[in-house]
Write a structure and sequence with these properties.
Elements (H helix, E strand, L loop, with lengths): L4 E5 L7 H6 L9 E6 L1 H11 L4 E4 L10 E6 L16 H17 L4 E4 L4 H6 L7 H9 L5 E6 L2 E5 L6 H7 L2 H19 L5 E5 L14 H15 L3 E6 L1 H4 L2 H4 L4 E4 L2 H12 L4 E5 L5 E4 L16 H16 L4
Parallel strand pairs: 1-2, 1-5, 2-4, 3-4, 5-12, 7-10, 8-9, 8-10
Antiparallel strand pairs: 6-7, 6-11, 11-12
Helix pairs in contact: 7-8
């Protein structure tokens, strides 16, 4: 069986993305990894931390070379200095993403793994940008995607993501919750080898509303959706109080957790796995995994960046590609 080819986007050039890519040859991967970015910049950052690593040009019809980094050249707009953001390179970051997306859509790449970008500097370049997830959804024509983080023995997906807390309740509608659960269930089956996944669903309010005494969203929205989807054959538990859902005994009874909002589920997962967690975008027609951290400008070019999350993201992308028969 041939190995999948994965696109690794090097992300914000002033951040740690290129440094993390430099660490990839430390392991032997059951995949061909192609780093996307400016060849000269990546070579300079690689040789600053891994002097013996060869940096070679990506040849679509070629094969992986152990101990080397293959680079698909995407030119910088301006010289990049580690730790120093430059809006002139905001468009460059999106050029990298566009090339990776095009390669995934055409079948050139089995999936993509993304290093961190800096949302603010892309917006400063005049391109409205709210994040990888939203950009990928628009680029692939996907009406709804689901963010899930994997790490610390947990899979935690979100109904809402980057919303002010005051807006969360109104955002959680029956159609959104229904579609989110269907995407989560389908991708757990397709990409994670779980033919009948059990999903633990958090309530929104303290004590999951305590029968309506602490809020009615569970009664009005969450419970009716769960009952409907159980009738369709899904194995759903809940709504569960979030303060007791994330205890080992309960977590062991499920394959994934669905949290209602960002800071309900992710603090627990990141406490258990930060630096080794993976962000996965569910619902896309392509595979996308990512590191669980930001650009870490203070570490860029220092040789001290921990590649653990990137390694975990690559491992998961390989697993997902094989599950989809992309190897």
């Amino acid at each position: 069986m041939s190995h999948p080819i994965l696109a690794i986007t090097s992300g914000e050039p002033a951040g740690v993305g290129p440094d993390l890519c430099a660490a990839l040859p430390r392991r032997e991967w059951p995949a061909r990894l192609v780093v996307l970015g400016d060849r000269a910049m990546i070579a300079a950052r690689v040789h600053a931390v891994e002097p013996s690593v060869d940096v070679i040009d990506y040849q679509p019809g070629g094969s992986a070379r152990p101990g080397a980094i293959e680079v698909l050249h995407v030119p910088l707009a301006a010289p990049a200095v580690p730790g120093r953001l430059d809006a002139a390179n905001g468009r460059y970051v999106l050029d990298i993403l566009d090339r990776a997306i095009a390669g995934c859509k055409s079948g050139e790449f089995a999936g993509m793994v993304t290093a961190p970008v800096h949302k603010g500097i892309i917006c400063d370049a005049g391109v409205p940008f709210s994040g990888h997830t939203e950009y990928l959804a628009e680029a692939t024509g996907t009406p709804l995607v689901v963010m899930m983080l994997v790490g610390g023995g947990m899979r935690v997906a979100l109904v809402t993501t980057h919303l002010p807390l005051k807006d969360v309740s109104a955002a959680i509608t029956r159609p959104l919750l229904t579609d989110t659960l269907r995407i989560l269930h389908a991708d757990l089956v397709r990409d994670f080898g779980l033919p009948a996944p059990r999903i633990l669903v958090a309530g929104l309010n303290p004590h999951a509303g305590e029968g309506g005494h602490m809020g009615t969203e569970e009664i009005d929205t969450i419970i009716p959706v769960l009952e409907q989807l159980r009738a369709e054959g899904m194995d759903l538990v809940g709504p569960l109080p979030a303060d007791t859902l994330f205890v080992p005994h309960t977590l062991q009874q499920g394959d994934a957790v669905l949290s209602m909002f960002h800071d309900q589920g992710l603090p627990v997962l990141k406490h258990a796995s930060f630096g080794g967690g993976v962000n996965v975008t569910l619902g896309l027609p392509i595979i996308r995994t990512s590191v669980d951290h930001g650009t870490a400008l203070d570490l860029a070019g220092s040789g001290r960046a921990d590649p653990g999350s990137l390694f975990a993201a690559v491992e998961l992308a390989i697993t997902m590609a094989k599950a989809r028969g992309r190897s």
